[in-house]
Amino acid sequence: MQAVPAKLGLQSPSGRDGGPPAAPLLSGDSIAARLLRIIFCCYFIVTVVVTLVQLAAEYKHTKERVVLEIRAMQQTFGPGIADAMWRFNDDILRGILSGMSELPVVAGIKVADDHGKLVRAVGTVLDQGVKVHAEADGHLKPEPASDGLFAEIFSQDFPIVYNDENSQERVIGTWTVYSNQRIIVKQVEYGFILILVNSVIKTCALWFIFLFVVRRYLGQPLRQLSEFVGQLNIDNLGDRVFVLNDRGHHELHLLTNKLNEMIANIKASVAENEQLYRQLQVEQTATRQLNESLERRVAERTADLVTANKDLARAIDTLRIAQEELVNSEKLAALGSLVAGVAHELNTPIGNGLLAATVLADKTRQFASNYSTGLTRSTTETYISEMTQITELVVRNIARSADLVTSFKQVAVDQTSSQRRRFYLSAVVAENIKALRPTINKTAYVIEQSIPDDLIMDSYPGPIGQVLINLINNAIVHGFAGRSKGTITIAASAAEDGWLELRVGDDGVGIAPEHLGRIYDPFFTTKLGAGCSGLGLNISHNIVTGLLGGKIRAASQVGGGTTFALHLPLAAPRHDELPAAVET
Q1: Rounded to an integer, what distance in angstroms lies between the CA atom of residue 475 and that of residue 463?
Q2: Residues 338/435, Cβ–Cβ less than 8 Å
Q3: Smallest Cα–Cα separation from 491: which of 482, 483, 506, 502?
Q4: pTM score > 0.70 for this model?
Q5: How far apart are the C-alpha atoms of 374 and 365, rounded to whole Å?
Q6: Could you read off the pLDDT of 488-518 as tens digits, one per residue?
């Protein structure tokens, strides 16, 4: 592999070597044009905001002046309106209102008596909240609806006060002067035009000033710089130092100096790269030879690994077969122990039932003998009483035997198959504990169960029972070793949505810290050679994490007992299985 030096992609402004021609001075993408647009946009926004503020201030000031003029009418026209109202002289009142309506700030005038009844109106007024127009004859007609921006009216109310001959002031009504936004706009219209013309002139002047300044102090120097850069080529950097034809010392002069420094550094880098290229060719030759040697060694090692992998695969297959045989033997041994215990447990109720049946046969023969010689009332009542007791004894023992057989049958079916079904966890745990009772009753150990009765699972009761039996046997064999009594606690509670936690704990000797991390390893046991295979917890771990789709963890303290926590889903993952039986 050979390295080829890259060429610097800088072309001349005339487009030689396929390069594009130089861009115009103030093209749409040039820095000068973009700078000009940004500055002008900012200035335009500021100008618009300032102009709007000026217009708003002028409008507000004019409106305040109009309001003051309206308020001043109270002194000018108030006495005349009061006198005309007092004397009921409608002609004088109409003349005063007509004269007031000619004022530029007045849109309408309304006069009402002290009861609020309209007396006289001129122009546009509000009557009961509705905008109306007063005709010359005093008739009111609705004002045409107007959606104009300046159609809103505002008013100023004044009381009509008359001084009688006793110099007492009497309020005989009110008169209201109306004005609107359009009147205010007409008064400030000329000022608005001057402000807008002033803003437009200043904006245009600033545009031309910036255009000249940007072209003179930014555009021309940048074009000189771009023409120089366009003439550069990696094969001919030249010895000329670029000097900017512009007076002063600004940022473009600093950029020019950095450009000259960059050209000098490129020349030095090109020379250094040529030397490195020659060294690289020598090293590539040595690397190629080393790679060929490594390939030969890898091929030899690969052949050795293939042989070793085949031997290892055969050993793993042999170990897997041995482990499966041990697991099956472990299951059969547990089932055989279960059968022996249940058979022993069945002896008592079956023996009692047989004894009661024998007594029943003897009593029946005796009753038949008495029947041939003649029965007495007392004999019959004695026979009936004894038959009732014996029959109850037979029924009770047979029912107990049937209950044991049913539990054993369900546990045996579950233990020898992985059939999925819906079941109550408390019932499955109770059945497995009942099956272990013959073994537990021979000892002083106690099993306590605390599981809610309404906890339903859709899972595999057989594997769950096998895990429970393994954990209980583990507690008896290892946890209570050397102890005459102990308590095993089995409890369950609902965890987060769709999960439960099943805990099996004992108050035994506990597990040593150095052994706690290895308890799930196959064939690991502290009683090797004493009848323990070391597969109980390994089988339990595989069942919980595999078939049941859960997790198992152990917590133990030396002298403080051991607790196994099973985190199980209420609905186990689906596996290839027969249709599940449903327990109601």
Answers
A1: 18
A2: yes
A3: 502
A4: no
A5: 14
A6: 999 999 887 889 999 999 999 899 888 888 8
Measured between alpha carbons, how far is 584 from 578 in angstroms, rounded to an integer?
A: 19
Which H or E run includes 32? helix 31-87
CATH class of 417-582: alpha beta
**The Cα angle at residue 564 between residues 545 and 494, in degrees rounded to 5:** 75
Which residue from 80, 299, 106, 97 is spatially nearest to 186, judged by alpha carbons?
A: 106
Contacts 24+ apart (CB under 8 A), 124-133: 124/153, 124/178, 124/180, 125/176, 125/178, 126/153, 126/155, 126/178, 133/108
Ranges of beta strands (E only) in 118-185 are: 118-127, 130-134, 140-142, 153-163, 169-180
For 146-156, b/e burial (b = at least 16 CB within 10 A) is: eeeeeeebebb
> Which of 577, 578, 569, 543 shows the shortest CA–CA distance to 425?
569
What distance in Å separates the CA atoms of residue 414 and residue 420, rounded to the nearest whole number?
A: 9
447 touches 506 (CB < 8 A)? no
CATH topology (fold) of 23-231:
Beta-Lactamase (3.30.450)
Say which amino acid occupies 160.
I
Q: Are 66 and 183 within 8 A, CB to CB?
A: yes
Domain boundaries, the chain: 23-231, 417-582
Task: Enumerate residues 6+ apart whose C-beta is below 8 A from 362.
Answer: none
> Which long-range contacts does 32-39 make (Cβ < 8 Å, 24+ apart)?
32/214, 32/215, 32/218, 32/219, 32/222, 35/214, 35/218, 36/210, 36/211, 36/214, 39/210
Rounded (10°) CA dihedral 427, 428, 430, 431: 110
The pLDDT tens digits for 87-127 are 888 788 888 888 887 888 888 888 888 887 888 888 788 87
Residue in the block written with tokens 């994490």 = 545
Among 325, 342, 354, 337, CA closest to 533: 325
Q: Which residues of 249-287 are buried (b: 16+ CB within 10 A; e: fewer)?
A: eeebeeebeebeeebeeeeeeeeeeeeeeeeeeeeeeee
Report whether 418 contacts 547 (CB < 8 A).
yes
Please tell me the distance from the alpha carbon of residue 499 to that of residue 413, in angstroms, as a whole number: 25
